[in-house]
Amino acid sequence: MPRGRLIYVPFWATYVFLYTPIIVLVVMSFNAGKSPYVYEGFSLKWYAELAGDDTVRNGLVNTLIVAAGATVLSTVLGTLLAVGMARHSRSRLLDALGLLPAVLPDLVVGLGLLVFYATIKMTLGLHSVILAHTVFGMAFVAAVVRTRLTHADTSLEEASRDLGASPLATFTRITLPTLAPGIAAGALLAFTLSLDEFVIAFFTAAPTEPTLPIVIYSMVRFGVTPEINALATILLAVSFTVIIVAQRMTRLTETLT
Amino acid sequence: MAGPSTGRPSRRSRALRPLAARLVFLGPGLGFLIVFLLVPLALMMSYTIFRRGRFGGVVYEATAENFGRLFDPLYFDIVLSSVRTAAVTTLIALLVGYPTAYVIARLPRRWKTIALIAVVLPFWTNFLIRVYAWVILLSGPGLVNETLTGVGLIDKPIQFLYNEGTIVTGLLYSYLPLMILPLYAAIERLDPQLREASANLGARPARTFASVTLPLTVPGVLTGCVFVFVPCLGNFVIPEILGGGRSIMAGNLIRDQFLKARDWPFGSTLALAVIAVLIVLLFLQAWASRAYGGTEGRRA
């Protein structure tokens, strides 16, 4: 790459591009005026409006139930899978299968599940979204935990096995405590992912029990209102906090690259 | 918890242990993925050879007509134009993402982490909200028009929204981080000595970039391109919200086959086409990684 300052132009442009919309959104959420475009002074009235919106509140409750359920399932299944893949298997096919949910377009995953649920005649509801979100949540937990596993010192596990401990005892007494920060970070990621996931939920939720992103989708399609800005700001704050906490707990950036 | 093996393990339990451990650790996750990912995909794939019933539903008579319909101009044109939109988005992402990733990889360690997190953060926030933010920015009275009229570049607001350019902007905004991360990983892994050697042998920076850096990062470039191109094809929200529903993409077509036309067999066939594109691209990527990244692979 040629030397000089020219290379910093796309670098800074990227960050301006990524953050301008977010900043505008946040600023506009505190707008006193009715327009979502023109700033007319500071006010919290859109947050008050949001707090009184039943549709939003129901959506939020549904989303929290789904995210909690999917996180528990993803964390248990993903952690076991990561340990299994790193310590008890050398199968490339298995590695590929573990990555599949992250590589496949969400549209394909969502439609596949829609067809599957219809075929086995399962009624849709929050449970069907929980199961759907576990498919990709588990993949992310497994990826984060595996990164931690490859960095972990294996000598303790070997010592435990040499001293005659069963794989299960080695797992619960040695592996699990070492992995705890990775598991917690993976759980946080699964939680935020589920919280914000729209496409798969769109195909697997019952129309009577929409999650918050589905509620947002119908709001956005209906038109632009400052209330959405307030909701967006809150969701941004939650996601940002969780990601930064997850990064502090584990080498998230390493997992992602 | 420790089970029978806390004492002196018998020969038999030693032999059984690896299998039991595999079952305990791999069984639940694998079982879940098979039931909720592989079976649904297989089911969807099997629908591609059936026909839609008169009132929706599926008639279980084998037919190849769904595959023929893929080439019906009505659908094929939409698929072609969304391939074009996805390709344009991928190209722009690469042109912006490469220098960005390059600068990040050369930053001091502390700033590197911050810069990477800053790239990932927007990606991890609500997708709909990120798309919606552009409606605010690009609309008639929005910030972009305000700024342009403010500095006197234009007299009256431009209609930015609802065309292919806005769709590309939205797609780029959504998937640019997926380009930057693999590029960063590829550039970061480069041995700085290679570039130094090239410079010592008298190559100018541009030459070093063209004959050393770029060829060695081709696998990263291709990974990034696959990561951006494929979700662009499958997206149906951005064309709807930023495209005003006028220009639809493959993702909209597939969704509508399932939810509006109730033609699951044809919808499945279109989804299979997207998966086929994904598989071809992944194979190309793996092939090119082996062709270009050979030296790196041996070193690792």
Automatic annotation (TrEMBL), chain A:
Annotated localization: Cell membrane
Keywords for the protein's UniProt record, in alphabetical order: Cell membrane, Membrane, Transmembrane, Transmembrane helix, Transport
PROSITE patterns named among the record's database cross-references: ABC_TM1
Ranges of residues in domain ABC transmembrane type-1: 60-246
Transmembrane segment boundaries: 7-30, 64-84, 96-118, 124-145, 183-208, 228-246
PANTHER family noted in UniProt: PUTRESCINE TRANSPORT SYSTEM PERMEASE PROTEIN POTI (PTHR43848)
Protein name as catalogued: ABC transporter permease
Taxonomic source organism: Sphaerisporangium corydalis
